[in-house]
């Protein structure tokens, strides 16, 4: 039976289509002092150019190649492969698999961005590397991360942010991330009950916990769509509830990134709001130790 939280302010996975809800929580909880994050409250994201140096891009690119090809990780649940090509799509819990990434997470230029927006100490809710190879890289359909983290992980409020650090150039043509500026202020409930171990399918292709075409049409007309493009080493910090997605990459130009999710230590996970059991801790950590 699906668990139901009695204090759920963001109900989702409904039997019938529900109305969009105005966000009842702040979008910025702290004091933003970085110029790159000046518009975060209004837009739900901020772009940091040259977060990594060219030398660091080379170093981390080699590190994620090592992880994707590590024989010790073959068959590991933390490694997600593409349905069609069997190529590595994502590697989860990379801050525990890589000392270099663990060190990067703790740096003020990284975790400090999250602390500014969230107004508290933060911990890693999820870390992963995403690979989108040329020609066959599969995109991610429109979604709000918070909807999934709330429903399946038990995250009470959208007091979390994601940092996507580009290790390759992001062009408009190679599946770079699209976001709807301002949509973080609107919560879109989804329909359908959550099957047991839903994560095994959703990490390859999500079908439950995604908005309808009517939802996307309404949001796109209200907020518009913009795209995160930029050189390797640039980064996008974005709100957990912003509507975002990416298209397939049919170009020869691969796209890969380090993806870090920071949650406030004042917003730690409880029981799932709309799932029979919590997802594994390599997807949704229950170690709330501040970084």
TrEMBL record:
Q: Which UniProt keywords apply?
A: Dioxygenase, Iron, Metal-binding, Oxidoreductase
Q: Which reaction does it catalyse?
A: L-ectoine + 2-oxoglutarate + O2 = 5-hydroxyectoine + succinate + CO2
Which co-factor is required?
Fe(2+)
GO molecular function annotations of the record: oxidoreductase activity
* Enzyme nomenclature, EC number: 1.14.11.55
Enzymatic class: oxidoreductase
Summary of subunit composition and partner proteins = Homodimer.
Q: What does this protein do?
A: Involved in the biosynthesis of 5-hydroxyectoine, called compatible solute, which helps organisms to survive extreme osmotic stress by acting as a highly soluble organic osmolyte. Catalyzes the 2-oxoglutarate-dependent selective hydroxylation of L-ectoine to yield (4S,5S)-5-hydroxyectoine.
Q: Which family does it belong to?
A: Belongs to the PhyH family. EctD subfamily.
* Name of the protein described by the UniProt record: Ectoine hydroxylase
What is the name of the gene encoding this protein? thpD
């Amino acid at each position: 039976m699906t668990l139901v939280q009695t204090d759920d302010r963001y109900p989702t996975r409904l039997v019938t289509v529900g109305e969009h809800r105005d966000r009842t929580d702040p979008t910025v909880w702290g004091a933003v002092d970085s110029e790159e994050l000046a518009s975060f409250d209004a837009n739900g994201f901020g772009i940091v150019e040259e977060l990594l140096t060219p030398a660091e891009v080379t170093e981390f690119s080699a590190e994620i190649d090592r992880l994707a090809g590590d024989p010790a990780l073959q068959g590991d649940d933390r490694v997600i492969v593409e349905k069609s090509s069997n190529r590595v799509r994502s590697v989860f819990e990379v801050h525990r698999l890589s000392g270099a990434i663990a060190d990067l997470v703790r740096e003020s230029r990284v975790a400090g961005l999250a602390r500014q927006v969230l107004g508290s100490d933060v911990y890693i809710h999820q870390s992963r590397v995403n690979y989108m190879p040329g020609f066959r890289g599969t995109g991610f359909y429109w979604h709000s991360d918070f909807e999934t983290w709330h429903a399946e992980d038990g995250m009470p409020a959208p007091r979390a942010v994601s940092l996507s650090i580009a290790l390759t150039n992001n062009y408009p043509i190679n599946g770079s991330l699209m976001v709807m500026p301002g949509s973080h202020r609107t919560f879109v409930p989804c329909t359908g009950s959550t099957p047991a171990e839903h994560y095994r399918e959703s990490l390859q292709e999500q079908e439950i916990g995604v908005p309808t075409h009517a939802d996307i049409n309404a949001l796109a007309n209200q907020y518009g769509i913009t795209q995160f493009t930029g050189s390797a080493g640039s980064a996008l910090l974005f709100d957990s509830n912003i509507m975002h997605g990416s298209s397939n990459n049919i170009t020869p130009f691969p796209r890969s990134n380090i993806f870090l999710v920071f949650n406030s230590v004042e917003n730690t996970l409880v029981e799932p709001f709309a799932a029979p059991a919590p997802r594994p801790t390599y997807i949704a950590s229950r170690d709330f130790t501040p970084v």
